[in-house]
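Molecular record:
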Amino acid sequence: PAGQFIASETEISRELGLSIGTVRRAFDILDQYGVLDRSQGKGTLILDASGEEASRRFVTFVDSAGERVAGELELIEAFISKADDAIAADLKIVPGSDILAMRRQRRHGGRIFLTEIAQSPYAPPAGARSAAALMEAAEGRWFGHSLAVRMSETVRPIVAGADDTRVFGVQDGQPLLELTRVIFSYDGVALERRVARCYLGQDLFYENS
């Protein structure tokens, strides 16, 4: 469980009959992926590699103090859709496949700064597609399927339309950012695709280093 310390590399090597080099390499990889936290003199701690905290590693917004800002996530809607050619190409699935689509938004400082449509290839089975079941699946997102370790992202400038003026409280034609992101597992599987519209305002900045 997250928050627990595990045995040392030497102890695991002895217990599993593996070379110390193999175990050390495994620890290095899990440390890199944010699963383990290794502290000299304290031991190796298991981190929470699921849930909203895990997705914060992909945050690309900062405040004026340089602190990363994930915002408060609100899931608005979840529904089953079909993957068009662009979605299928990003998720590496067959066009027309069932996908779980999610409409979400994020708040910071009392205002909505991002709206997004996300698509996941992990659609619930046909017998478990009630509104409640879809929302539950959307809350879990990729976390029950794999460990997310990498993100690709493209950014382009856009201008606010009617929906943006209502949600962000900006004027029609206000400059916004559109971010298309794909989250990948440790073995290269695409776990989620997101297309977001973002109004930074005066208190947020985009930073992807």
